[in-house]
Specification:
Layout: H1 7-20, H2 29-42, H3 49-52, E1 59-65, E2 70-75, E3 78-83, H4 92-101, H5 110-120
Antiparallel strand pairs: 1-2, 2-3
């Protein structure tokens, strides 16, 4: 899905889902999954479960979706989607695992280079 999304599409989706669930909580499993993924991506919070439990998971895959400026981690039992330009509360061991897995990109791009620079800082 992210391959065909532009950044505007992603931001519009976040705004729509956020407006729908500002005052209520999603009840359906897929709605909850979408809301949690978008919330983690746009408004990460250190106390969120996904960040607290990352030491329990091994990085299996690290990909960049250049069209929308998102990179993802596939870990055991969880996917984490992150905006390229944002810093997230990743542990040093998770960052090391990401770098060891190597970023998967379709072609070298400036956005991939900027992401790697951000992580190595």
């Amino acid at each position: 899905m992210l391959k065909s999304f532009s950044r505007e599409d992603l931001e519009d989706l976040y705004k729509l889902v956020k407006a729908k669930y500002e005052s209520t909580r999603p009840m359906e499993d897929l709605d909850l999954l979408l809301w949690e993924d978008l919330k983690t991506m746009f408004k990460p919070h250190v106390k969120d479960t996904v960040w607290r439990n990352q030491q329990d998971y091994k990085v299996l895959e690290w990909k960049l979706y250049d069209s929308c400026g998102v990179h993802s981690l596939r870990m055991q039992h969880v996917y984490i989607y992150m905006l390229v330009e944002k810093r997230y509360p990743l542990t040093p061991s998770t960052i090391t695992n990401m770098l060891n897995k190597k970023l998967q990109v379709n072609y070298f791009s400036e956005i991939a280079y900027q992401l790697l620079k951000l992580l190595i800082k």
